[in-house]
Amino acid sequence: MSVSRSPDHAPLFATPLLPLAEKIGETLRQHGVRLTLGGEPTLVPLQPEGSEWSFVAVGPTKLDYAYKLAAVIIERFLPGAVTVFSPGKVYPGEINPRWVVNLLANRDGSPVRPPIPTGRAAHGRSSCRTLETLQAAISGALGLPPDGWSLAGDPHSARSRVAVLPLDHDGTAWKTERWPLPKGKGRGRKLTLLNAEGPAGLRLPLADLPPEAMRRALTLEWREDEALHLFLPPLLQGPFCELLAVITAQLSKQRIAKYFFEGYLPQDEAGLWTRVGLTADPGVLEINIPPCETWHDYHRWVTILEETGRAVGLRSWKENAQGDATGTGGGNHLLFGGPNLDENPFFPRPAWVASLLRFFQAHPSLAYLFTGVYVGASSQAPRPDESARDLYDLDLAYQHLAGLPEGDHRYVIGETLRHLHTDITGNTHRSEISFDKFWNVGGPAGGTSGLVEFRAIESLPHAAWMSLVALLWQAIAAHTLAHPSPRALLAHGDALHDRFFLPTPLWEDLRAVLDELRRGGFDFPVDGFRSIWRWRFPSMLSVDYGHGETLEIRRACESWPLLCETPSEGGTTSRFVDTSIERLEFAGTAEFAARHLVSVNGRELALSPLDGPGGQGALVGCGLRYRRTALYPSLHPGIAPHLPLELTVAPRRGGVASSHYRLEENTRQFQPVEAGELRHAPGSGAPAAKSGDRLLTYDLRLE
Predict the structure, then answer these.
(1) Could you write out the DSSP letters of every residue in 669-699?
(2) Where are the domains of the chain?
C-alpha cells in the first residue's frame, strides 16, 4: 500500500516524527503492550448542500459519494477488495436507517474477488436468461437443488427482477427450502416485497411465512440501474467466505461487471480481513479505518483518505456561514484498543487507565484545543468534571482502579467508569473519553470491544495535522504507562470555562503537556501544533504599534447551553443549544497594555495576565462574550445582538491618535473605520462587566 505523493505531507516527514513514533512504539513494547490506534475521520463535499450535510444522517447524495470514494480506494490502494452495503441502526426521530459501505480486503493481499475476464464485453444489461443461469450456477456450487429460488415483485419498480433463495449453513453443509408462495394459479406467482425503502433483502415478507420457515435468504436483485445487487444473509465467517467465493467466481465467469454486495458482515474471528467502513452520520460521511498497530499505519490511512477524498470531491473541512474554515462538525475520534480481546492492554492494567485519565483531567487543552469551537457540558464530548460529577467521585473511582491487584479487570473498569464518563443526560457515548465500547455488557452493538474512545478531536484540513494529534495521544499513553502518576485531580473551578476557553491559556497548557512529555523522553516539534492552534483560533485583528506593543483578537471557545424541549416537525420534540453567544480573546503585550486603553461599544476592557498565576505577565488580555444572533430558540430573547462591535484603542497619555475598528454582521475580521463613523463614543458606557471578579472574560450582556 503506497503513501500519498502530495507535497502537503512533506513537512511532516521532514521533522523527527518518524524516530519519535518508533521510540513511542518501543516504549510500549518494552512494557509488553500492543496498543492499537483506530480512527473515525469525517469528510464532506466541497459544496455541502442540504440537511444530509448539516444535521441529518441519510440523504440523496451521501451514498453515491460513499460508493465513489470506495471505488477510488479499491482502485489505488486495495486491489481485489469488495464493497458490502450493510444496514445500520434506526435512531429515534430518523425516518430511514443509517447504513455503512464496507470495504473488505484480505490481509494476505489475495483478491476477495477474481477479475472479470477480458476478451468479451462484460454484461452491462439485465436479462432473464443471465439471472436464471446465475441462480442455477450458485445453487449447483453450493450443492443445492436448482428449484429453491422464488421470484419476488417490487412495488417500487415493475421492471426490477428479484430472485430469492432461502439459505443457511448448519456448520457442515448448506441447506435451503421452498418458501410457500401466495395463493393463486399459474407459474407466475411471486412473493411481494414490502413497500419500504432499502435493498430487496431487507424487504422480504418474512412476517407472512409460517413460524417454522427458514428466515435467512440470498437475494439477487437486478434493478432499473442495470446493476445486480446481491443481498447476503447473516452467516458466520467461514460460510460467509465460502458463499462470497462462490458468487464472485460465477460473476467473473459470466462477465457480470456491474454488481453490488449488500447484507450482513460477520465478525472477523479468524483475523482474515482489512475492513474500512464508510458510514452515514449526521452531516458527514464518517470513515472507520482499520485498527492500526503502529502510528505509521494510522498516518498512511488518513493520508489515503485525504488523497482519495480529494479525487471524488470530498474534504475534511468546510466553511461556515461567516466564511470561517472549520472542521466538518462530525469529529475525528481516536480509539485505543488491542489486537484482540485476549491481548487487550487495558484489561490487566487498571492503574494505567487511571493514570491516563488523571493526565487528561489535568490539561484542559486536550479537551478544548483540538475539537470544534463548541465545547462544555452540553457539547458532544464533555469532560467528566463538566457532567455534574464531583471530583470526589472521580478521584475515588481512579484510586480504586489504581489499587486493584493483577488480573483481568475489564468488567470492573467498565462499570466503574462508564457511569462517570457521560454527558449531563447520562449518555455514555457523548463524553470526552468514552467507555461506551469498553465492556458495556448488555449495551449497544460493539459495547464489549475493549475500546477507549477519545471524542474531543475534530477533523483537521490536513492529514499531517491529524497524524500529529494521533501521535500526541499515543505519546501520552506511553508516558503514563512508563511513568504512572498518582497526581491529584485539579479543581479548575471557574477557570475551566473562563481562562481555558481562551486560545492563549490553552496554548500555554499544551506547552506544559509537551514539556512533560519531553522530560519523559518524547520530544515533539512545536511548529505543527502552533499551526493547528492558529487554524483553530483564527485571527480577527492583528495590530503592531511598534516598540513591542501588539494587540491580537482571536475567536475563542464557547459553551452553548442546552435548551428545553421544543416541538418539531412530525410531532416529535428536539433539544437545541443556544448558539447566540460568541467569545473572543483580546491578547496584547505588557508594553501595549501599559500605553493603551481598549474599549468595545464604548465600554472599557481591562487587560490581565494570560499566563496564569505566577506567570511573568508577558501577555495580557481578556475574553469578551457578546450576543451575535437572536435566532429562535435562544436564551434571553429580549437582549438584542451587539453587532456591529466597535473597537477603540486609545493612548493612555496623549501622543498617538486613537484607532478604531468595526466587526460587522456576517464578517470575521475587524476593519478600520474613522472616528466619525462610530455609534458608540469611547468611554461613553460603563466599564465592561464580568459575572465574577476572578474571571478573565467580560460579558457585554451585563450592565
Answers:
(1) S-EEE-GGG-SS-TT-SPPP--SSTT-SEEE
(2) 7-39+299-527, 128-258, 538-699
